[in-house]
């Protein structure tokens, strides 16, 4: 018998299901405690090929190559890792119209103690906007499935990268 907590929807369960619904089988990530439930769930599910990359740029390159070979993928990272990506996004993913998905756990807001995280958080959305990369913030559980589904659908239909930003309002943030 399962408890209500086990059967209640979670942000990571919703994202994992959206990935399956869109046949996103490759999950690359740079380890992050906030994303740990999603990472662990993907590792445990034989549907996914899941592994850690040394750096975010490496993860983007892996997913871009897999996408060109016909396999859909996503890169999981935290906000500070996003700061390393403008060059690879502009020169590879955007220039070649590769629908790379990204999920970024947002740090740098809502009481963040690290000034570096706060600076990157303030620049992440303008960088995405400057490259025309669609991005949506997941902040409410009741909207998460819709936003994840539609963001992935649009990325693959338009052959353009997209980014989901996981707000601490939904994830609980860094503990």
Overview of this structure, please?
Strand 1, helix 3 (36-44) and strand 2 (49-52) form a beta-alpha-beta unit. The protein has 175 residues and is an alpha/beta fold. The protein has 9 helices and 6 strands; from the N terminus they run ααβαβαβααβαβαβα.
Quick recap:
The chain is built from nine helices and six strands; from the N terminus they run ααβαβαβααβαβαβα. The chain is of the alpha/beta class.
Keywords:
175 residues; alpha/beta; six-stranded parallel beta sheet; 6 strands; 50% helix
| Model regions low in confidence, pLDDT < 50 over at least 5 residues | none
What is the number of strand segments?
6
Order of helices and strands: HHEHEHEHHEHEHEH
Strand residue content: 15-25%
Strand order within the widest beta sheet = 2-1-3-4-6-5
Write down the Rg: 15 Å
Distance between the termini: 30 Å
Q: So how many helices?
A: 9
């Amino acid at each position: 018998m399962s408890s209500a907590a086990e059967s209640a929807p979670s942000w990571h369960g919703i994202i994992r299901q959206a990935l399956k619904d869109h046949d996103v089988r490759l999950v690359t990530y740079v380890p992050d405690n906030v994303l740990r439930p999603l990472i662990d769930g993907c590792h445990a599910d034989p549907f996914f090929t899941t592994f850690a990359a040394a750096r975010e740029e490496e993860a983007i390159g892996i997913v871009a190559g897999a996408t060109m070979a016909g396999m859909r993928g996503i890169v999981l990272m935290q906000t500070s890792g996003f700061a390393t990506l403008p060059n690879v996004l502009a020169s590879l993913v955007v220039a070649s119209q590769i629908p790379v998905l990204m999920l970024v756990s947002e740090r740098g807001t809502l009481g963040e103690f690290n000034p570096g995280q706060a600076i990157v958080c303030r620049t992440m959305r303008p960088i995405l906007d400057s490259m025309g990369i669609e991005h949506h913030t997941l902040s409410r559980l009741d909207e998460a499935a819709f936003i994840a589904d539609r963001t992935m659908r649009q990325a693959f239909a338009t052959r353009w990268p997209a980014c989901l930003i996981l707000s601490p309002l939904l994830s609980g943030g860094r503990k």
